[in-house]
């Protein structure tokens, strides 16, 4: 039996690469059911001021096709607590670049009150969508 029943994680998943796969694989190893939120194009534009290379519907389809993922949902805002109210997961998986961030420290406090853990995963060294874009001259 796995440590958690329902896990949740989110991402843009643009130019899908092994770092994305590693996070989803690690998340699924710790939970029975993994829900993945894929950021909408509008949300990405709102906080990154750039449109993803791969359109939202195609990014959803890519994530749906992975054996580690049980359910894919649109991520229309970045509020993980609102997501919890809807999906009632017991663990949130995030990249360790958010560890110690004021926003996530507050979120950890809120989640502690409803018995939700926040698990931070290390990013895969040497790979990111930004690096992929640089390599292909975007």
Give a written overview of the molecule.
It is built from six helices and five strands. It is α/β, with parallel strands linked by helices. It has one domain (4-135): Rossmann fold (3-Layer(aba) Sandwich), CATH 3.40.50. The protein has a five-stranded parallel sheet, sandwiched between helices. α5 links the parallel β4 (91-95) and β5. The longest helix has 13 residues, at 18-30. The chain is globular, with a radius of gyration of 15 Å.
List the helices and strands and how they pair.
Elements: E1 4-11, H1 18-30, E2 31-39, H2 41-48, H3 56-64, E3 71-75, H4 80-87, E4 91-95, H5 102-113, E5 117-121, H6 129-135
Parallel strand pairs: 1-2, 1-4, 2-3, 4-5
Give a short overview.
With 138 residues, the protein is α/β, with parallel strands linked by helices.
- Percent helix, as a range, is 40-55%
Range of strand content: 15-25%
CATH secondary-structure class: Alpha Beta
How many DSSP E strands?
5
Low-confidence segments, given as residue ranges, are none
**CA distance, first residue to last residue:** 44 Å
CA-atom Rg in angstroms: 15 Å
CATH topology category name: Rossmann fold
CATH architecture: 3-Layer(aba) Sandwich
- Mean of pLDDT: 91
Number of helices: 6
Structural class: alpha/beta
Order of helices and strands: EHEHHEHEHEH
Give me the oligomer status: single chain
CATH homologous superfamily designation: HUPs
Tell me about the largest β-sheet. Answer: 5 strands, parallel
Instruction: Provide the spatial order of strands within the biggest beta sheet.
Output: 3-2-1-4-5
């Amino acid at each position: 039996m796995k440590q958690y029943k329902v896990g949740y994680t989110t991402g843009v998943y643009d130019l899908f690469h092994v770092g994305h796969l590693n996070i989803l694989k690690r998340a699924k190893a710790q939970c029975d059911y993994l829900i993945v939120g894929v950021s909408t194009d509008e949300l990405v534009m709102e906080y990154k001021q750039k449109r993803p290379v791969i359109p939202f519907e195609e990014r959803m389809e890519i994530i749906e096709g992975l054996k580690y993922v049980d359910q894919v949902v649109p991520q229309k805002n970045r509020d993980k607590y609102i997501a919890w109210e809807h999906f009632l997961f017991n663990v949130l998986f995030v990249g360790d670049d958010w560890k110690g961030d004021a926003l996530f420290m507050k979120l950890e406090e809120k989640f502690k009150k409803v018995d939700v853990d926040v698990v931070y995963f290390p990013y895969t060294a040497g790979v990111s969508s930004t690096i992929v874009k640089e390599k292909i001259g975007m």
